[in-house]
Amino acid sequence: MTITLSGTLSTALAYLAWSALLCALLWVPYVLARFQVWGIADTVGYPENPKALPQWAQRAQRAHMNMVENLVPFAALVLIAHLTGKGGGLAATGAAIFFYARLAHAGVLIAGLPWARTGAFIAGWVGTLLVFLAVVR
Q1: Tens-digit pLDDT profile for residues 90-103
Q2: Taking Cα atoms as reference points, which of 70, 96, 94, 93 lies closest to residue 15?
Q3: How far from 72 is each of 51, 53, 58, 75, CA to CA, in Å?
Q4: How does DSSP assign 74-116, residue by residue?
Q5: How far is CA 115 from CA 112, 119, 135, in A?
């Protein structure tokens, strides 16, 4: 997958936009599983005793929540880097690492691959750390 830039969007901001889109889409598999298992009425309602969802769907929900939690500090750092003129170089590299690591994290978490999940999580954290280092140096 190649990230293309348009206008004056920096590389770091482009990866932030792609990361936000990933976060915005990660709820979809979970909700589709709810439709499949619970039906429409219970999915949009509040079932008292809902049927258990498949493990992959529960992991999909956790992948979404984990992305929400990690997107906040990443986004703040990318915006600070951009506003201070430090959005290229190390920040851009960190942003790219974050995006691809979080994409991998979602895939391996939903698939149920624990060691790969941890590796992808750490890689995403390193990406965030690189953006931080670009900001403070």
Answers
A1: 999 999 999 999 99
A2: 96
A3: 32, 28, 22, 5
A4: HHHHHHHHHHTT--STHHHHHHHHHHHHHHHHHHHHHHT-HHH
A5: 9, 6, 31
Query: Which one-letter amino acid corresponds to residue 29?
Result: P
Q: How far apart are CA 41 and CA 130, in angstroms?
A: 46
Which tokens go with 5? 């830039």
Question: What region does 112 belong to: left with phi over 0, alpha with psi -120 to 50, or beta?
Answer: left
Angle, CA of 102, 107 and 113, to the nearest 5°: 110
Comparing C-alpha atoms, which of 93, 61, 95, 89 is closest to residue 75? 95
The model's pTM is: 0.90
Report the C-alpha gap between 131 and 96 in whole angstroms.
10
Q: 34 by DSSP, 3-state: which?
A: helix
